Amino acid sequence: MLTELTDDPVKAAQFIRKGEIVAFPTETVYGLGADARNPVSVSKIFAAKGRPTDNPLIVHIADKLQLLEVARELPPFAEALAERFMPGPLTLVLFRRRIIPDIVTAGLDTVGVRCPQHPLAQEFLRAAACPVAAPSANRSGRPSPTTWRAVLTELEGLLPCVLKGEQSHFGLESTVVDCTGEMPLVLRAGAVTLEQLCQVVPSTRLAECNAKVRSPGMKYRHYCPRVNVVLVNSPQEIPMELSTRSAYIGLVTPKLPLQKTVVCEGLEDYARQLFEFFRECEMANVEQIFCQTVEDRGLGLALMDRLRRAAAML
Ligand code: AMP
Ligand code: MG
User: Fold this and answer.
1) Spans of the chain below 50 pLDDT
2) Greatest pairwise CA separation for the chain in angstroms
3) Distance (Å) from CA 221 to ligand 2 centroid
4) Closest ligand 1 atom to the C-alpha of 222?
5) 57 lies in some domain
6) Which of 8, 201, 247, 305 could be 260's S-S partner, Cβ–Cβ 3.0 to 4.6 Å?
7) pLDDT for 240-258, tens place per residue?
8) Whether residue 165 sits in one domain with residue 259
9) Residue 314 has what pLDDT?
10) Cβ distance 87 to 64 under 8 Å?
11) Is 180 in the pocket of ligand 1 (CB under 6 A)?
């Protein structure tokens, strides 16, 4: 299949309207979308990604006013979160309406819904004029793409259209919050921090170990580059004999010369650069990637989740 590149969101949306799949930029990572109401279209996402069918997809809407088109109820605390963080990098898990078919939710009675704030994503969703189911636009298990070039590396020939935008602002996926219980439960740490959520709903908690059951996708290997990832507390832990064939990303500058070094300005910069750095390391054929650990708070919670998964520690 020929993969067409376009910077026209209306043209990209026409593929959705024809029942096809399209990759598009968002502020978190690039997504691979299809008409969420159409099971045949949605099945093309699973085929292109090689994604297990028991891993549900997030449904994207252009406006938070559409939440109740895909969900049957919005508890007051979920409404408060939507009011504060939508549009933005937050996914709410709500009881679904039947308009969303089983293939999207992996048979669950709930649906994950997100309203991206990226202007191109917004225009694309408005032109598609339907809820768009979209996971990240990578082959299953791989790091999420944060550039349109990375989407092509992952999926060229497997989809008919890529909507071109700039590099994703956050570089980390959305925060997934289960709103079907008494209080908000964070199933996946992401670009909206636990601290930010608690400012709006103080009873918000991390789901921790039961997240694997509640959020089926969390049980699979994720975000793994083809190069071995090792976590270090500081670049001084990098063995000298490995340094010339190794890469490093972190906040502290290493003293040794390495094959590839990225020193980030802070957590946001680290998050934004991580997945693209993994891809550059693959292309440069480095033997090991050393990633500096950060504290598990603020954006560091999501960053450490991705780092631990990339290092196959989760
Ligand atoms: P991805 O779009 O590939 O970043 O993955 C979507 C994430 O959202 C996965 O971890 C899913 O398990 C989770 N998710 C999507 N829909 C639901 C849902 N209805 N209930 C719980 N988790 C969900
Ligand atoms: Mg993904």
Assistant:
1) 210
2) 59
3) 10
4) 3
5) yes
6) 247
7) 888 889 999 999 999 989 9
8) no
9) 74
10) yes
11) no
The CATH number of whichever domain residue 170 belongs to comes to 3.90.870.10
84 with 8, same domain: the answer is: yes
Q: Are residues 127 and 161 in the same domain?
A: yes
CB 33, CB 60: distance < 8 Å: yes
CA pair distance 202, 183, nearest whole angstrom: 9
Residue 42's domain comprises 4-206
Residue type, 37: R
If asked whether residues 195 and 235 sit together in one domain, one would say no
Give the model confidence (pLDDT) of 248-294 as tens digits: 999 999 998 999 999 999 999 999 999 999 999 999 999 999 999 99
Structure tokens at 307: 């780092």
Calpha distance 103→290 (Å, rounded): 38
Residue 62: inside a domain: yes
Closest-approaching ligand to the CA atom of 60: 1
pTM for this model (two decimals): 0.95
> Which two structure tokens, joined as six digits, stand for 268?
């946001």
pLDDT attached to residue 80: 98
Give distance in angstroms: CA of 151 to centre of ligand 2.
Answer: 12
Instruction: Report pLDDT for 209.
Output: 59
